[in-house]
Amino acid sequence: MYVSVKATPIKSLKELPRTEQFAPGHRLCAGCGIPQVVRFALKAVPDPKVVVNATGCLEVATTIFPYTSWGVPWVHVAFENAAAVASGIEAAFRVLSKKYGTKKPKIIVFGGDGGTFDIGFQALSGALERGHDLIYICYDNEAYMNTGIQRSGATPKGASTTTSPAGKAVPGKMERKKNLIEIAIAHGIKYAATMNPAFPIDMYNKIVKAANTPGPTVLHYFTPCPTGWYFDPSRSIEIARLAVQTRIWPLYEYEDGKIRITVPVKDPKPVEDYFKLQGRFRHLLEPENKWLLDEIKRDIEENWNRLLKLAEQK
Amino acid sequence: MMGKRVGMNGDRAVAFAAKQAKVDVISAYPITPQTIIVETLAEYVNNGELDAAFIPVESEHSALSAAIGASLAGARVFTATSSQGLALMWEILWIAAGLRAPIVMAMGNRALSPNINIHCSHDDAYAARDTGWLQLFAENVQEAYDLTLLAFKIAEDHRVLLPTIVNLDGFILTHAAEGLYVLDDKDVDSFLPPRKPVNPIDPDNPKTYGPLDFTDWYMEHRKIWYDTYPNVPQVIKEAFAEYEKLTGRRYVQIKTFNAEDADKAIVILGSSAGTARYAARKLKEKGQNMAVISLTQYRPFPRKELRTILEKFDVVAVLDRSLSFGSPGNQLFMDVATSLYNAKKKPLLVNVVYGLGGRDFTPRHVEQVYQLMEEVQKRGEAPEEPVWVGLREA
């Protein structure tokens, strides 16, 4: 019933499969983190596979008619329903493979944070609850970047976006980011993990695990956005790495009921190192916003300690 | 050849037809008065009577989204909805048609809120009229069954490849049991062999479905899509003819009754056509002559055929079971008026509103419409505003 070809983990980037199913010449911005996860996912998940894409940066930048960057079947229907469309494709192939021996592909879904945390949340929850065999990858650039830079449920506390602008009365977004992984886990899925482009082997092997897990899996991918975060595109990976080193973006996985931190961070770097490189956080370093910076630091510490506890319990 | 006679309500008849069509995927969410369809199909699947995937989605929005995915994958796909459910699907209706996904959807026609009302109006059918879906209207339970089988035949035809709605009036047809003839499974198999998809999702032959169009291509793609519709009636006629050979039951795009010598006619959709014909027969006994024109094929709208039929009448009353707020007329009225605009000889047109939210529509109301048409004929002038029949008298 499930794909019989096993995905294989790697130890070094030299072992990356050479096949490219995501063509160069796409129109994603310089310094954007999205293409890395797409290339890696298409390499890590064995054929046959099908990609379903929610409306967003990835969709609009890779399929401008008459061009396409996709060397695998690729389907886009709307913004909020990628998980539902994937459910239908998965169910169809389940039946067609039984009735006519059609090969059953693995379904990979790509959605941005808007299409996952917000408008697509219900469809994702439904698909996870029903147990469809699919890998859901959320590429999270922490705002609605395809429509500009509007806040989403994934925008971190303190960030300035066009719908949560840092003003005199309200200095940016005041709410914490939704915890996608734990919400996903609560559906009873078997595998979920966070990923980051600065840790490519960790990322690749998590996609491999997701590919080898029957049923739904959720991968939450951190992707820097030079346009929306206001930084020099050349510093994209540096910023991504800092997000992990400051404990803002812990790299961990949930597998067989256990949480495991895959990239331990013993001596975290100051969050200021991460904030000062990005225009969206610059106001946090002003003296009048110290209270907010302190609050964010407390949140990060609290989240890290909670994660450590969860990881120790098992 | 007629098949076996059984008793069923409309919902069960539709579900039975979908089962005999050997659908591969059913993706559905329950909503009154369509719920029995979904429940019945779930029973078939769980009892092992139907080898299909039943996706019990979390909303109508996802029901149609999953249906599109399954249809693009090459499966024969069925779903059902009503009213608010259709409204929740609305965005996705366009995409199903534009991606050329031949999904069959039964719609238990029901009024839209407010106020919440579970009974029959045609609000939902009309709400889908510009989305590119084909629409058929059933007049009774037999037709609900037959048209469901026909819908698969039409939708999946390679000259069509468009999603199709089978409308059946909420409660009047969905819940009322009638006698009907059902085909033997083997006859359905010969009429509806397994679907042969065009360009299905195939990892060995990857394609990009639903890309981005800029200003350089969007209009051309719309034109290709739009140009499909003039070809559809021929396919519908062929399907009707083949079905008649198999069952002896004759279907036409437009049903006419008493059209030869009458000078007045009413145009109507759905189950009320039967009531209208009954009343017309009674009127004829009194020497009052009225034609009844009902549409089995609502989208694409049979514009030319209807014009040919209607241009000979003096007065035509168009009956709408819905309102189009702030429009020049209600929905079917606008369709008919537009179709007649360039006719050499034009009847006077009256728009009648009836049966909203399940309000009874009786032969007495038809007689009222007839009398209204007589007055219009005498005056030589039609009322500007729609005339309501069946309103409660304080």
Automatic annotation (TrEMBL), chain A:
Stored Gene3D superfamilies: 3.40.50.970
UniProt-listed Enzyme Commission number(s): 1.2.7.11
CDD domains per UniProt: TPP_PFOR_porB_like (cd03376)
Annotated catalysed reactions: a 2-oxocarboxylate + 2 oxidized [2Fe-2S]-[ferredoxin] + CoA = an acyl-CoA + 2 reduced [2Fe-2S]-[ferredoxin] + CO2 + H(+)
Residues annotated as domain Thiamine pyrophosphate enzyme TPP-binding: 55-220
InterPro entries for this protein: PorB-like (IPR051479), THDP-binding (IPR029061), TPP_enzyme_TPP-bd (IPR011766)
Keyword list, A-Z: Oxidoreductase, Pyruvate
GO MF annotation terms: 2-oxobutyrate synthase activity; pyruvate synthase activity; thiamine pyrophosphate binding
Regions of compositional bias (Polar residues) in chain numbering: 152-165
Entry superkingdom: Archaea
Transmembrane segments: none
Record region (Disordered): 152-171
Record-linked SUPFAM superfamilies: Thiamin diphosphate-binding fold (THDP-binding)
Enzyme class per UniProt: oxidoreductase
Oligomer and partners: Heterodimer composed of an alpha and a beta subunit.
Protein known as: 2-oxoacid oxidoreductase (ferredoxin)
TrEMBL record, chain B:
Protein EC: 1.2.7.11
Name by which UniProt lists this protein: 2-oxoacid oxidoreductase (ferredoxin)
GO biological process: response to oxidative stress
InterPro entries: PFOR_II, Pyruvate:ferred/Flavod_OxRd, Pyrv_Fd/Flavodoxin_OxRdtase_N, THDP-binding, Transketo_C/PFOR_II
Pyruvate flavodoxin/ferredoxin oxidoreductase pyrimidine binding domain mapped to chain residues: 17-240
Enzyme class of the recorded protein, top EC level: oxidoreductase
Keyword tags: Oxidoreductase
Gene: porA
Xref: SUPFAM superfamilies: Thiamin diphosphate-binding fold (THDP-binding) (SSF52518), TK C-terminal domain-like (SSF52922)
GO molecular function terms noted in the UniProt entry: 2-oxobutyrate synthase activity; pyruvate synthase activity
Domain Pyruvate:ferredoxin oxidoreductase core residues, every copy: 262-366
Pfam family, one: PFOR_II
Catalysed reactions listed for this entry: a 2-oxocarboxylate + 2 oxidized [2Fe-2S]-[ferredoxin] + CoA = an acyl-CoA + 2 reduced [2Fe-2S]-[ferredoxin] + CO2 + H(+)
Quaternary structure and interacting proteins, as annotated: Heterodimer composed of an alpha and a beta subunit.
